[in-house]
Amino acid sequence: MDIATLAGIIAGISFIVAGIMMSGDLGNFYDAPSIMITLGGTLAATLISYPIKNIIGIFRVTKNLFFTKAKDPNGIIRQIIELANIARKEGLLALEEAAYKLEDPFMQKGILLIVDGTDPELVRNIMETELTFMEERHSQGQAVFETMASLAPAFGMIGTLIGLINMLKKLDDPSSVGPNMAVALVTTFYGSILANLFFTPMANKLKHRSAQEMLYKEIMLEGILSIQAGENPRIIEEKLKAFLSPQEREALHHNSTAGEE
């Protein structure tokens, strides 16, 4: 589970609620019609903007924001080195049994392609095509959240305009101006909260997750092609370490050293 996502949302709501309670009455910030205009309007406009399958898919994407476990790049490299050692000692055909034990479908597919004797250039083309379409699928979820982030403040402003119009029609009653003005501004508040606490951060988290996933797949692809080329496992390890940050390289070195002890 991604604790950061849940902690961020809880902390954001808590700070806002605490700030309101320290400076006024929390009840002043609840208005059902404003919620309908801002949240309902945003959802309706999103439905108009995208096919229904993209909207349904956003529920799965939202679930992934909370429950997807980040992969360990060092674990991926160690797995590739193990496969390289098998290929070096027993040949590429010996990788078939190991391939079916792999959890990642992308790596499994690549290993089975080289076991089948597929041309290296064709292997690269097939795997890169998979990466391209995977990135495209990821971008669809990000785009929905980005659209909602842009729509929420706009519907907040629409709600404010509706409130102002209603207020101006009752100007003959000066005592109603203040309360009506406050209710009108609540929709802008809702729109800003939805955009800046939920939709924009969720889109950013999805972009980060997609970039991580692409990096892991590129490590796998480079490793698979290196195994097919018959490169030395130590050379493959050094090549794949170039994808990692200095901290991750140090962790890989530490684990390798520990494994040799």
Q: In a nutshell, what does this entry contain?
A:
The relative contact order is 0.14.
Q: Based on DSSP secondary structure assignment, what is the total number of beta strands?
A: 0
- Main sheet makeup: none
Strand content: under 5%
Radius of gyration of CA atoms, rounded to a whole number: 26 Å
Distance from first to last alpha carbon:
33 Å
* Spans where pLDDT lies below 50 across 5 or more residues: none
How does the SSE layout of this entry go?
Elements: H1 3-23, H2 32-49, H3 52-67, H4 73-90, H5 95-99, H6 105-115, H7 120-168, H8 177-228, H9 233-241, H10 246-260
How would you describe what is shown here?
This protein has 261 residues and is mainly α. The protein contains ten helices and no strands.
Question: Which key terms come to mind for this protein?
Answer:
0% strand; mainly alpha
